[in-house]
Amino acid sequence: MVDVLSQNEIDALLAALSSGEMDAEELKKEETQKKVRSYDFKRAVRFSKDHIRSLTRIHENFARFLTTYFSAQLRTFVQINVVQVEQLPYDEFIRSIPKMTILNIFEAEPLEGRMVLEVHPNVAYAMLDRLLGGTGTSPSKITNLTEIETIVMERIFSKAFDSLQEAWKTVIEINPRLEALETNPQFMQIVSPNETIALISLSTKIGDTTGMINLCIPHVVLEPIMPRLSVNNLFFSPKKTRAPEEMEVLQERLHRASLPIIAELGSSTITIREFLSLTTGDVIALSKSVDEPLDIKIGDRSKYTGTPGTVKGKLAVQITDYVTEGVEEHDE
């Protein structure tokens, strides 16, 4: 927005120029002088604000799916929310996490490269304690995982990647697969130290235990699908077409589906006292006479009318007409 000078400001500026207090040439130089902005090559900006917003939306869905999954598995209160989505060098991410933590290294075909789901020890051990029959508390001292604990961890987090697959469906169909589980960040080198990553931080609460879950996605992994992360493409889903063979299978299954058909003779209303006093031989008068057509229902909806009879010694009903469904009229 351009600032508009008042008349007093214009008069003061002209007076300063005429008196020599300000130099017009110097003003021109200041306007044409290039503004220099420092750039840190170690923190290269690879993700635009548009990309960050898209990643935030995707992983907000991931957090909801993950909350549902862990709540069902642990059978306790679980709350997971996206706290921050940022970009930073991979080396800075490694230095920011604990020396002893849970690192789920995974791949997600067709994307090329490895990603990391880092789970804070407080959260991981609370899950482990809950799965092994405890109350879901985290130990005061963090130790290395035993062989049994490692297997339990791998099983629960392997299934957790189904939530990631579901969250990314609006962008690309991925197939996440756990490759390895590490506890020491120094042994994990998925990209070069200066490579830019997208870090999605999820605040996690399991019962009374709180901690963070961090999802590290290198830029080189997302680079082939970066155009799809724009807001215009994020919510665009192409219309799916079914193969002819699939349509034939659906039609065959539809033709084999069974529906209940009910021929309603009529209805009646009696009191509770009359109902309790019913005995063998009593007659209940129905709302219809024997000359009126019967209502034939498919499920709970009237579709036809018919007349009763017998066929080969069995009770039957013959369809005589269709029931035309009326159009509801709405008051304007």
UniProtKB/TrEMBL annotation:
Which InterPro entries does this one have? CheC-like_sf, Flag_FliM, FliN-like_C, SpoA-like_sf
* Record keywords: Bacterial flagellum, Cell membrane, Cell projection, Chemotaxis, Cilium, Flagellar rotation, Flagellum, Membrane
- Give the SUPFAM superfamilies listed for this entry: CheC-like, Surface presentation of antigens (SPOA)
BP term (GO), one: bacterial-type flagellum-dependent swarming motility
One GO molecular function term of this record is: cytoskeletal motor activity
Q: How does it sit in the membrane?
A: Peripheral membrane protein
The record, for Pfam families, names:
FliM, FliMN_C
Residue ranges constituting the Flagellar motor switch protein FliN-like C-terminal domain according to the UniProt record:
252-323
Location(s), subcellular: Bacterial flagellum basal body; Cell membrane
Membrane spanning residue stretches: none
Family listed: Belongs to the FliM family.
Please identify the protein, giving its name as recorded: Flagellar motor switch protein FliM
Q: Which organism is it from?
A: Paenibacillus antri
Query: What lineage does the source organism belong to?
Result: Bacteria, Bacillati, Bacillota, Bacilli, Bacillales
Whichever gene encodes this chain, its name is: fliM
